[in-house]
Amino acid sequence: QVQLQQWGAGLLKPSDTLSLTCGVSGGSFSGYYWSWIRQPPGKGLEWIGEVNHSGSTNYNPSLKSRVSISLDKSRNQFSLNLTSVTAADTAVYFCARRWNWLDPWGQGTLVTVSS
Amino acid sequence: EVVLTQSPDFQSVTPKERVTLTCRASQSIGINLHWYQQKPDQSPKLLIKYASQSFSGVPPRFSGSGSGTEFTLTISSLEAEDAATYYCHQSTILPNTFGQGTKLEIK
User: Fold this and answer.
1) Mean pLDDT across B36-45
2) Quick count: other Cβ atoms within 10 Å of Cβ B11?
């Protein structure tokens, strides 16, 4: 059974780069998209983007200029980088596997942007 | 992008009541519509995939229907543990999008 475990810095200053990693255990990268989703405190879910097993990416146009998602098969992990963060990027960030639907999900990481 | 509009935003319901939640898409998305349940401080959990297919391990009281632009999630007999926020998600057209969520409160 595939499990996702995510990690990364939880407190950033404005203009920093957000970096999160999601480790994948119990399954293969092939055939799926590996996604990042975020949820501002008390609000709904926003899809950030995804990468597939061959490294092909899709990004939300609202974040495309600042986001990068990559895959490291040798380490069984994929990563999210979001540059030039502001307070508006404060959210819980989730990783997830996508085969049309999203399952499973990582445990979530709260990232706070504050000066 | 495809806008998903859920209704209602909030509903207070009694145990054993039948509950129907709606998700409307701004354009046709076929059946690539999925439903999730999220409890406070937890990750969302998949309930229904492809509009009407129950996901493994999900109690049978949860069911989904619809296609095109109109979708419903039905809980046939509400239990206290169903207090949560429910989200729909479309994967037909990039970017993937979510509805704003429906929060269910148990009276």
Assistant:
1) 98
2) 16
